[in-house]
Design goal:
The structure holds 2 protein chains of 2 kinds.
Chain A: E1 4-7, E2 10-13, E3 19-29, E4 34-39, E5 46-50, E6 54-55, E7 63-76, E8 86-92, E9 98-100, E10 104-108
Parallel strand pairs in A: 2-10
Antiparallel strand pairs in A: 1-3, 3-7, 4-5, 4-8, 5-6, 8-9, 8-10
Chain B: E1 3-7, E2 11-12, E3 18-25, E4 35-41, E5 48-53, E6 59-61, E7 69-74, E8 79-84, E9 93-100, E10 106-109, E11 113-117
Parallel strand pairs in B: 2-11
Antiparallel strand pairs in B: 1-3, 3-8, 4-5, 4-9, 5-6, 7-8, 9-10, 9-11
Classes of the chains: A mainly beta, B mainly beta.
């Protein structure tokens, strides 16, 4: 089983600042199959990034993804008030086919 | 615009079977481009993939739940369903249905439905 570890657990930042979120896999993950989601309280997750670096439909370009192998990063270049949320990474690959990381909470400093 | 909506009982007794349905509107569940999946989230915790179904009926399940899970599809109703047997309090969660792309990401999610397992 591929285990995803996200760091930090909580990121306290101010609007306008840059956020850098890490997702580390216990084994190599195909870049084609690494995704990031945003979840706000009481809402379903929202796909932000797929294929490690491709933005989903309607996602602003302040969101970017990068990485390969076992290390992946989600960057939010300038935080907007609506970006404060929990972010999950997700991989597809070995059994179980899909696993999610534990999440990084981005909250307002 | 495609939408997904979960439905089913919000309260299930221990040892019984949890049954949920996801209705797809604004598009066809029979598209060859997508799979359809179930994901759950216990209160205050992270996301767990339960399983997927293709319109043909083929399925994939999380091995940790495989012995208790059945996911099926009804193309005539544009719905797919989840059955989880022998539930315990550990199965208490928000259950989401989602559309799975070929690039193996869930791009459209239902709003989620809370299921509590309690006597």
């Amino acid at each position: 089983e591929i285990v995803l570890t996200q760091s930090p657990g909580t990121l306290s930042l101010s609007p306008g600042e840059r956020a850098t979120l890490s997702c580390r896999a216990s084994q190599s993950v195909s870049s084609s199959y690494l995704a990031w989601y945003q979840q706000k309280p009481g809402q379903a997750p929202r796909l932000i990034i797929y294929g490690a670096s491709s933005r989903a439909t309607g996602i602003p370009d302040r969101f970017s993804g990068s990485g390969s192998g076992t290390d992946f990063t989600l960057t939010i270049s300038r935080l907007e008030p609506e970006d404060f949320a929990v972010y999950y990474c997700q991989q597809y690959g070995s059994s179980p086919l899909f696993t999610f990381g534990p999440g990084t909470k981005v909250d307002i400093k | 615009q495609l939408q997904l909506q979960e439905s089913g009982p919000g309260l299930v007794k221990p040892s019984e079977t949890l049954s949920l349905t996801c209705t797809v509107s604004g598009g066809s569940i029979s598209s060859s481009s997508y799979y359809w999946g179930w994901i759950r989230q216990p209160p205050g915790k992270g996301l767990e993939w339960i399983g997927n179904v293709y319109y043909s009926g083929s399925t994939d399940y999380n091995p940790s739940l495989k012995s208790r899970v059945t996911i099926s599809v009804d193309t005539s109703k544009n719905q797919f369903s989840l059955r989880l047997s022998s539930v315990t309090a550990a199965d208490t969660a928000v259950y989401y249905c989602g559309r799975l792309l070929v690039i193996k990401a869930f791009d459209i999610w239902g709003q989620g439905t809370m299921v509590t397992v309690s006597s």
